[in-house]
Write a structure and sequence with these properties.
heterodimer, A: about 350 residues, 2 domains, 10 strands, globular, B: about 180 residues, mainly alpha, about 70% helix, binds protoporphyrin IX containing FE
């Protein structure tokens, strides 16, 4: 019973070594440690941090300056035509959300930073959730995450001048006409003077499948009931630091603000995987319900700061489309969320002004 | 815990061992692969990662119960004491990781107040309070323990092959379906 005494162990040892090394190599390759470079969430978050003059510990790496809100979503069931999502069943559902401006600097002056945005979380009693993060533009400056990172890099202010290097920006724009088109749009578009009078767009398309199994591609927009003046683009720089947020706080103290969730169904031929392209022609639009924002509060008091408004968290009957921004957003928001979670989340910059 | 009357692990335990070996390795590759990319694979792999992880948790609990009920065959008498301890210790750690990793994944999503969804309409309840610092620690633990788990599996695999190809002492067969060398069935 001593087969094992005088055997040549070289071959088996070599075999075992090869298997172990092969597995370890495959693991490192899949993890992106070796092999061709793969864009990670960290790459994009690093670019966002650099663009904002370094990481602002405890804050979101984009849309850093924000205000929490709460309210409700009331629907009559019209959305069921497109999806059996629980929050499309007639009824009223609780909502938590966050208004924000663009950029990664939580202390930025509102006037230099105007890019109204709204994040939402709708919850149904059965636990289904719908998270959204929307901007006040129907289109986005880039179509994919590689371009997103390139734009962040090209628009990073030069420490000497405090402004992006015009030569770098020019090179970038030459390669990305879609960003130039977005800039042309922004230059013409009016800027609402209140968060309450802005439209918020999903920008990305999503795949809605209804109870009968029919699938539609849908973009949505949240249309305000209130109307009001636009900002004077020539005097933006002289706006008080927290003008837009203070306006929303003062407005909400007097009464709630309302919006309508409109589902816009793609026409045949609409581009559904590229957020830089607007859907122009007339579309079938469904008013799926009313969003009421009844309370606002600084981030440390509201519940919104500690949430990740990941736009791929969707209820039954709604799924992501093949727009490449969506998966990238999910990964990048997760990376940003994890970084700020470990840094002791900071009190909101506007919160400081709100509790003198 | 070893049972001198046994030459093999219980047949069901062997089936579960090899099923789980594949699943756990797949999960480790899915895990590091999905977090390495901003591509569409992130969302689809994560949607697979959560239910597969919970399936591993359930299988590991069933497996532990069978293991405690049926015992293990004794290790060869001529195996040095430290090696026996290393074998038993590493098996304990493997069980801890098989049960711990999915629990940490579930707990960290709970602490982030994220939905622990297994399918579009099915989600697990939260098992931790919403707390970002807690989320951060659990998220780090999921990475560190995940990588340690992979290294331990490499070691375990090397040791198993060493028993099977070099020592030929019946340890390999105890987890497969072969005849034990030098023993009559
Ligand atoms: C690849 C493209 C994009 C990248 C890399 C990106 C990156 C980010 C990051 C890192 C955050 C902070 C997340 C956190 O820490 O919780 C964020 C927040 C946000 N993003 Fe994006 N974003 C992208 C596209 C978009 C698009 C298309 C929209 C609008 C439809 C959008 C709207 C928002 C909003 C509203 C927030 C604030 C959410 C909140 O208040 O928590 N983003 N984005
Ligand atoms: C991938 C994950 C793996 C895990 C989590 C795992 C786990 C375990 C555990 C916990 C035991 C102890 C049995 C018990 O007490 O119930 C065991 C035994 C064993 N495993 Fe694995 N294993 C894995 C992969 C492998 C692989 C790839 C091989 C072979 C190439 C292998 C070969 C063996 C053998 C031969 C035994 C029997 C050892 C003995 O008699 O004590 N395992 N495994
Ligand atoms: C045997 C079980 C499991 C194994 C081996 C495993 C392994 C891994 C690994 C290796 C990573 C990559 C970590 C990194 O490199 O940073 C990861 C990430 C992750 N895992 Fe797991 N996991 C398991 C179970 C679970 C479960 C049950 C859940 C949730 C229900 C989960 C949720 C996640 C999440 C959310 C991430 C990170 C995504 C991100 O940060 O973008 N895991 N997992």
């Amino acid at each position: 019973m001593t087969q094992r005494t005088s055997r040549n162990t070289f071959l088996p040892m070599a075999l075992i070594g090869t298997i172990v090394v092969a597995l370890a190599t495959a693991f490192a390759w899949v993890a992106g440690i070796i092999g061709p470079h793969r864009q990670s969430g960290g790459d994009i978050v690093n670019a966002l941090e650099a663009n904002a003059g370094g990481a602002h510990a405890g804050y979101r790496r984009a849309h850093a300056k924000g205000l929490c809100f709460s309210g409700s979503f009331t629907t009559n069931g019209a959305g069921l035509a497109l999806s059996p999502a629980s929050m499309f069943q007639p009824g009223t559902y609780p909502v938590i959300g966050r208004f924000s401006l663009g950029g990664g600097n939580p202390l930025a002056t509102d006037g230099r930073n105007v890019f109204h945005a709204m994040a939402l979380r709708l919850t149904a009693p059965d636990g289904q959730e719908w998270r959204m993060a929307m901007d006040h533009t129907p289109i986005f400056p880039v179509a994919d995450p590689a371009a997103f990172q390139a734009l962040q890099v090209a628009s990073t202010p030069d420490p000497k001048t405090g402004k992006p290097d015009p030569a770098r920006m020019k090179t970038y724009l030459a390669q990305h006409p879609e960003t130039a088109a977005f800039q042309a749009y922004i230059a013409k578009a009016p800027l609402p003077a209140s968060f309450a009078t802005a439209i918020y767009y999903s920008i990305n398309a999503f795949r809605f499948t209804n109870g009968a199994g029919t699938t539609h591609l849908v973009r949505w927009q949240i249309i305000p009931e209130a109307t009001g003046p636009d900002l004077d683009k020539n005097t933006l720089a002289s706006l008080p630091r927290d003008a837009l947020f203070q306006e929303m706080v003062a407005r909400t103290a007097k009464g709630p603000s309302r919006w309508h969730l409109q589902l816009v169904v793609a026409n045949p031929g609409d581009v559904t995987n590229n957020a830089t392209i607007a859907w122009t022609d007339p579309h079938r639009v469904i008013d799926a319900g009313t969003l009421t924002v009844s309370a606002v509060g600084p981030e440390e008091a509201g519940q919104c700061r500690d949430l990740n408004f990941d736009p791929t968290v969707l209820p039954r009957g709604i799924a992501i489309s093949d727009d490449p921004l969506l998966a990238a957003r999910s990964k990048v928001y997760s990376t940003s969320f994890t970084r700020r979670a470990g840094e002791h989340p900071g009190p909101s910059a506007i919160g400081k002004d709100m509790h003198p | 815990m070893s049972r001198p009357d046994r030459t093999h692990f219980a047949p069901l335990l062997r089936v579960i061992h090899w099923t789980m070996a594949l699943l756990v390795l797949a999960m480790l590759f899915i895990g590091v692969g999905m977090v390495s990319t901003t591509g569409p694979a992130y969302v689809s792999l994560l949607a697979l990662h959560r239910p597969l992880g919970i399936a591993i948790l359930l299988l590991a609990l069933v497996r532990l119960a069978i293991r405690l009920g049926t015992g293990a065959p004794p290790l060869p008498d001529d195996l040095p004491k430290p090696q026996k301890l290393a074998a038993k210790g590493s098996h304990g750690l493997l069980y801890a990781a098989m049960i711990g990793m999915p629990l940490i994944g579930w707990a960290m999503l709970s602490a982030a107040d994220d939905r622990v969804s297994l399918s579009p309409s099915l989600a697990l309840p939260a098992i931790m309070p919403h707390d970002l610092m807690l989320y951060w620690w659990l998220r780090q633990a999921h990475t560190v323990i995940g990588v340690a788990f992979f290294l331990l599996i490499l070691l375990h695999l090397a040791a198993a092959l060493m028993h099977g190809l070099i020592r030929r002492d019946g340890v390999w067969q105890s987890m497969t379906f072969g005849k034990i060398p030098g023993k009559r069935d």
